[in-house]
């Protein structure tokens, strides 16, 4: 079981730390932001979208960790 965690971490860590800068938004938002306010406005809009996108992932991660921890504690008590 521990070997599975090591393999999983070996796959996740490079993705998190060694990826290039990733910025994503819809094509329409990008086109409007770049045409109306230049690159500074587009960059700020992009960072705002990434911030809003990260919140659900963080919440799901916290819930998954809590469930995993609860499962681990209940398994030891049995």
Structure, described:
By secondary structure, this protein is mostly helical. Helices cover 86% and strands 0% of the residues. It has helices at residues 2-17, 27-77. The longest helix has 51 residues, at 27-77.
How many E strands? 0
Helix content: over 70%
CA-CA gap between termini: 19 Å
Question: SSE order in H/E notation?
Answer: HH
Radius of gyration: 19 Å
How much of the sequence lies in strands comes to under 5%
The number of helical runs is 2
Compute the average pLDDT. 76
Report the uncertain regions.
none
Shape from CA axes?
elongated
Largest sheet: none
Given the helix and strand composition, which structural class is it? mainly alpha
Task: Give a topology summary.
Elements: H1 2-17, H2 27-77
């Amino acid at each position: 079981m521990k070997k599975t965690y090591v393999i999983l971490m070996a796959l996740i860590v490079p993705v998190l730390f060694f990826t290039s800068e990733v910025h994503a938004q819809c094509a329409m938002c990008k086109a409007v932001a770049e045409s109306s306010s230049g690159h500074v406005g587009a960059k700020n809009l992009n960072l705002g979208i990434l911030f809003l996108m990260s919140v659900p992932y963080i919440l799901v991660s916290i819930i998954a960790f809590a469930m995993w921890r609860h499962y681990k504690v209940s398994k030891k008590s049995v």
